[in-house]
Amino acid sequence: MDFEQIYHFIFETYAGMGILIGASLIICIIIAAILEIRTRKLYKDRGEKKESDEWSLFDDDDDDEDDDDDDEDDQDDEAEAKKD
Q1: CB of 1 within 8 A of CB of 8?
Q2: Integer CA distances (angstroms), 36 to 24, 28, 54, 55, 71, in order
Q3: Which of the 8 DSSP states describes residue 13?
Q4: How many CA atoms lie within 13 A of 83 on its CB side?
Q5: Where are the beta strands (DSSP E) in the chain?
Q6: Cα–Cα distance for residue pair 46/23, rounded to 1 Å
Q7: Which residues in 1-36 are b (16+ Cβ under 10 Å) and which e?
Q8: For 46-70, what is each residue's pLDDT tens digit?
Q9: What's the rounded Cα separation, in Å, for the pair 66 and 72?
Q10: What angle do CA 34, 39, 44 make, to 5 degrees?
């Protein structure tokens, strides 16, 4: 196979483009894994974890939410109902 046939296969056929995208994805995953391992080796000790300061996607605490806006809307609705 010469260079022209390889170029045609990789860039001008569906199978070649799939191989190109798949190879790029695998290379990126390998690079990310290597960099993650190197970072973990560099920053081994992070100290004690403070659970109260951690942010969580599934945080069930309602302390941070401000419900004052809802109360004002309820009062406005009640005032309008009394006018009618």
Answers
A1: no
A2: 18, 12, 21, 22, 48
A3: S
A4: 6
A5: none
A6: 35
A7: eeeeeeeeeeeeeeeeeeeeeeeeeeeeeeeeeeee
A8: 666 666 666 666 666 665 555 555 5
A9: 12
A10: 130
- 77 in Cβ contact with 84 (< 8 Å): no
pTM: 0.50
Helix, strand, or coil here: 84?
coil
Q: Please give the distance of CA 23 from its chain centroid, rounded to a whole number.
A: 23
In this structure, are residues 16 and 10 in contact, taking their beta carbons and an 8 Å threshold? Answer: yes
25/20 Cα distance (integer angstroms) = 9
